[in-house]
Amino acid sequence: MTELLSVRGLRVDFVTDRGPAQVLDGVNLDVGPGEVVGLVGESGCGKTTLARAILGILPPGAARIRGGEVRYQGRDLLREDPDLVNDRVRGRAITFIPQDPFTSFSPVFPVQTQIMDLMKWKSPRAGNADAAPSPFRRYPRERYRADREAVLDTLRAVQIPEPARALRRLPHEFSGGQRQRLMIAMALLPRPDLIIADEPTTALDVTIQAQILRLLRALVKERGVSVLFTTHDLGTAHEICDRIVVMYAGQEMEAAPTDAFFTRPAHPYTRRLLASVPSPDGEIRDIPGEVPSLIGPPSGCRFHPRCDYATAECRAARPAPRALAGAHGVRCHHPLDAPIAIDP
Amino acid sequence: MRLLALALLRLAWFVPTLLGLLAVTFVISRVIPADPVALVAGETATPAQVEALRRQLGFDRPLPVQFVDYVARLARGDMGTSIFTRRPIVEDLAHRLPATIELTLAAMVVSVLVGIPLGVLSALWRNSLLDHALRVVTVSGLAIASFWLGIMLQLLFAMRLGWTPLNGRLQGFPPRPLTGFYLVDAAFTGDWPTLGGALWHLALPAATLAFPALATLVRFTRAGVLDVMQSNFVLYERAMGLPGFVIVWKYVLRSALTSTVTQIGLLFGILLAGAVVTEAVFDWPGIGTYAVNSILRSDYNAVMGFTVWAGAIFIVVNLLVDVAHTLVDPRERAT
Amino acid sequence: MTAGWFVLTRLARDRSALLGLVLIAALLGAALLAPVLSTHPDDVFELHPSERLQAPSRAHWLGTDRMGADVYSRLLFGARITILIGVIGVGASLLVGVPVGLVAGYYHGWLSDLLMRVSDVFLAVPQVVLAIAIAQTLGPSLPNVILALSATYWPWFARVVYAETRALQKEVFVESTVALGASPWRLTALHVLPNIASPIIVRASIGMGFTILTAAALGFLGLGPPPPTPEWGRTIAESREFLPDAWWYATAPGLAIFLTVMGFNLLGDGLRDVLDPRLRRSHRSRDD
Fold first, then answer.
1. pLDDT at residue B34 above 60?
2. Could you report the predicted ipTM of this complex, rounded to two decimals?
3. Other Cβ atoms closer than 10 A to A133
4. Where in chain A is the domain with CATH 3.40.50.300?
5. What span, in angstroms and rounded, lies between the C-alpha atoms of B84 and A120?
6. Whole-model pTM?
7. What is the pLDDT of residue C256?
8. N or C: which end of chain A has fewer CB within 10 A?
9. Higher model confidence: residue B16 or residue A1?
10. Chain B contacts of C254, Cβ < 8 Å?
C-alpha cells in the first residue's frame, strides 16, 4: 500500500552536559492514508521527539538528526528545501495538535486573529504561490470570506457554540476542552492529509478526554485524514486508533492493528505493558527494572536488560523488522506467539 | 469598567503623593540654614530692609501657615514669582516646556524605533556579531555619564568634524509659534530651512539623551523575546509552518512588549532625569536648564515650581503606564 | 562560609562579572595606592600655571589641566572621592532603606502604607533633580553630596526589601515559624534577613554605579566638593572651556567614570545571575 508517511531509520541525539542522549535509535514508522495510528509508550520513550522530528520542530540547539529519512508522499522532508517544506508541507499537508491547549495560543490576540492568520497562509483555497512568503502578501477579500465561512463551519463541527462570537474572544475565555476543540478545528482547516497529535488529551480533565477523542476520530474518518497520535495511555489508544505502534527507550518495538495489538502482542515488552495496566481487582504487575538512560543506552535491543526472553543475540544487535500475519510488524529476536487474554 | 476603577484608585494617590513631595521640598527650601530672604534682598541690604522684605514675602509667618498658603495658591494655578526673572513661574515653565518635550519626545522616538527592532534582532541572531556589538552598547549605555557623552559628542561632531551645531535649539529666527515645537511649526509653515536647522540642533542632544534609554530597551526587548520564543504558542506556530516573520514580528514581539511597555514608562523617567543634565550641556532652553539655573541661583520658588511640575508629570506617567499595561495585557483585565 | 564560596566560584565562571571585579579592583587600587601610583602627588594642591594645558607626554601621562596639574595624578586621587561617595552614600541608603522596608513589609497596617507612600514620594522625582535641590540648599561640599545621594537612594532599598519581605511572609516556612511562637526579631534575624540578603547585595552593587553617576553629575554642575578637590565630574566641567584643543582634559575623567560604573554594573548583573535563580531565566539568555 502506498504509505502517506514513511519514516526509516531515524536517529536523533539530544545534546546534554554528560554527552549525547540517543533519543531515537533508527526508528521506522508508517502511516497509511486515512488511518489513525497510535504511538504508545512510557514517558521518555521518544514518541514526542519522533512526532516533532516529523514536523521538523526539534529544538535547533539541543537536538541533532543523525540519520534516517522522513518520507512524505515519497519525498524526504529532511532533505528537501526547508523553506519549501515550511510553506507547503507544514500547516498544510501535515498539521499539528499540541499537548497543552492552555499555552498553545498567544494570550494577547483574539482567537480570530490567530485562526485567520493561519488561513491567510495555509488555507486550501490559497493555492501554491510561486514566491516565498513575504510580509507584503495580501489577503484577497473573497478568499477571506470563503475562509471565514469554512472556519465557522469547522467550529460548528467541533461543537463550539456560537462560533461567530467565539472568534472574537481571547483564548483564556475558553475552557481547556474548548481550546482543544479549537486546536482540532485549526488542524482540520487546511485540509491536511495527516494530523500529528501529541498527547492531545493528557492535559484535559478525564471526564472530557473521551469526548474529545471521539470527536477527533469522527471528524478525521469523515474527511479521510490520517492521524499520528502519541499517548502514554493504552486505554486512549484502544479507543480511537486503527493501528498501534509501541516504543521503548527510543526504539519502536511492535506495530499492529489495534485488535491484534491487544489480543496477540508479539513483543515481550508489549505483553508486559498490557499486563501492567491495573486489573479490575486492583492488582498491578510492574515491569521489573528501570527505563534506561539514553546517554549510555543498552546495546542491541534496548529492552533486553528487563526482558525474560533475552539472549546474547538480543544484546548484540537490534532486531530487524519482522512481518507477521496481517500488517503486524515486530522487532524482536524471539517474538511471542500465543494470544493473551486481557480485558480491553 | 475595571480600567476606570483602577485609574481612579491610582489618581486618588496622586494628591497625597504630590502633597508629600511638596512638603519635602518646602521644608528643604525654607528650613535649611541659609536665609532665603537675605539672598533675595542681596548683599547690600540692611537688616531692616531684609526684615521688611521678609514681611512682604510672607516669610515671617509660621511654616505650616506658609505651606498651606502655598498649596492654596498652587490650587489656583499660582506658583509664585521667580526671583530671578521676575515673572510668574507658571509662565516661565510654560514658556520653556515645549523645548524640553520636543527633546524628550525626539529621544524617546529614536530609542523606541531603533531600540526595539535591534533588541529583536539581537535575540534572533543570538551570539552573532550584531548581538555582541549590541551587548557592548547595552552595558555602556548605563555606565556612561550623560553629560560626558554629550561633551564628547560635541567634541567630535561639532568641534572636530563640524557636522552639527555646538549647542542651542536654533540659530536665527524661530518658526512661527503655532505649537512651540520648532519641528512641527516649521513643517506646518513650510519653512524647510528652519526645519533642517532645528533638526541638526536636535541631533546631538537627542542622541545623548536617547543613549541610556536605547541601551535599556535593547536589553529588555532581547530578554523578553528570548523568553517568549520558548513559549508553547511559538512552538505551535512553527509546527504549523507560519512564516518566520509573522511569528516574530507579530506574535513574539507583541508578547515580549507587554513587559517593555512598563519599561517605556520607566524610560520616560530616565529621559526626564537625563534631560536636566543634557540641557545644561547643550544650552537647551528647556525646563531642565531652568531648574538647574534656579537651583544655582537659589530661586527657591522656581525650584519648588519645577519640583511640583516634575513630580506631577511623574505620577501621571506612572499612572498611564499602569493603565497601558492593563490594556496591553488583556489577561489583566479579566482578573 | 560555604554560601559565600559557592557564590564566588559561580561568579568566577561569568566573564563579564569577572571583568567588573577587575575594574572595581582597579578603582580600589587606584584609590588606595594613589600616593604611590601617581607621578605628581602634590598636584592635588600645587599649581604650576606655566605648565597648563599640556598634551599627554612622558612626563604627564594624561596631560595637564588648566592649573598645570597632572591630570593622571589628580584622577587617581579623585578615585578616593568616588569610592567615598559611593560606599558611604550607598551604605547610608542601605541603613535607612532596609529597616524601613522590613517594617513596612512585616506589618500590614497604616504604618506600612505610610512608609511606602513616603518612599513613593521620594521616587516620584528623578533622583538627580532631588539630589541637586538638596545639595544646592546645603551648599557644595563632600558630606552634603553624600547626604543628598543617600537621601534620594534609600527608597530603592526600601522597595526591594518590602517586596521580598511580603513575598516571604507567604512562604510556608515563615508561617510555621510564626505559628511556633517566634518573636519578630528572631524571625527577622534568622529567617528574613538571610533571604533578602541577595537582592540587597545586587541592588547595592547596581546602586553604587548609579550613585557614582549622580555624584559626577552633581560635581559637573558645581554642587560637589569645591576645588581643589579632584572630583571627576567637576574636572569635566572645568575642561569645557578648553575644548577641543585640550581633549585629554575632558576625556580622561569621563573614561574613569565610565569604567568605574561599568565595573559595578557588570558585577551587579553577575551577582544577580548567581544569587537570584528566579531572574536567571531571562538573564541566562544574556550569556547564551
1. no
2. 0.90
3. 18
4. 1-93+194-292+307-344
5. 65
6. 0.80
7. 92
8. N
9. B16
10. 144-145, 148, 151-152
